[in-house]
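Running low. Any example?
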Amino acid sequence: MRIAVVGAGGVGGFFGARLAAAGDEVTFVARGRHLEAIRADGLSVRSALGDLRVAPEAVVPSIADVPAADVVLVAVKLWDTEDVAKQLRPLAEAGATVISLQNGVQKDDVLREHLPARSVMGGACYISAFIEEPGVVRHNGTLQKLVFGEFGAHGAEPSRRAGALLDRCAAAGIEAEVSPAVERVIWEKFVFLTGLSGTTSAVRQPIGVVRGTPGSRALLRDVMREAAAVGRARGVDLDAGLADERLAFCDTLPADMTSSMHNDLKNGNRLELPWLSGAVADLGRELGVPAPRNQAIADVLSPYVMGAPATGAE
């Protein structure tokens, strides 16, 4: 299978490298120091499941440099989605299936604004991985899973293209499944991720501290309840007890686990906040669903959205 991976960071780098190792023709789109390092020495993936290395010639600096693709995996930060969608149109019109592995619940709406709706398949990923240094991706732990499927499948058998990708994932040792309710899967992940990212960032502590302190534990629960309520108002079939179930799941996580947004906050990087707690608050307003806890997190962290703010000190 010809696969283009747009964004060769933790998510794209790991899954793309495993597919490449299984014999698929994978082209990575990267930029900056990461691109330069891959061009010089290839892409290295360090993982408890086995280290991998992708040859330097597998990386290109632009989507326009991808000759052809059967599947495009989008793994860039959420603020780049619209720009990437515009650039993907020639590949999509030529028949490529586009699957976003990004966080958030608005990503596929953005893709469908610029691409043929038929070309967009829903997707979600479950992994902890990051760029350890330019040219090197580190996979934390052993969790690595992809879920994808056609929008509006409603219990139908997997489509031919979904089944083909599932086969390639199996060959690559990637845990994967085709979901007949992929929009619900995306929202279920979003509910959890909004809680994890919002609270670890606002409290500036890992999940162990958040869940172990009564006030911040209540905040975590309420943030997820608000997100789930917004999803239901959007017509997504989410269980009434989803937030409480996700809270129980948080109790099983390693105490030192944090979120990518918390890491970005600590490192002074731009935040995906507007597409997480900010999105819950914005969508809640549109739908008439109160989301005061998510709004508070969006407000508290707003000075850091574009990175560490200038202090004004001389």
User: Anything to note?
Assistant: The chain has two domains: 2-180, 184-304. The beta strands are 2-6, 25-29, 43-46, 52-54, 59-60, 71-74, 97-100, 120-133, 136-149, 175-178. The chain has a mean pLDDT of 95.
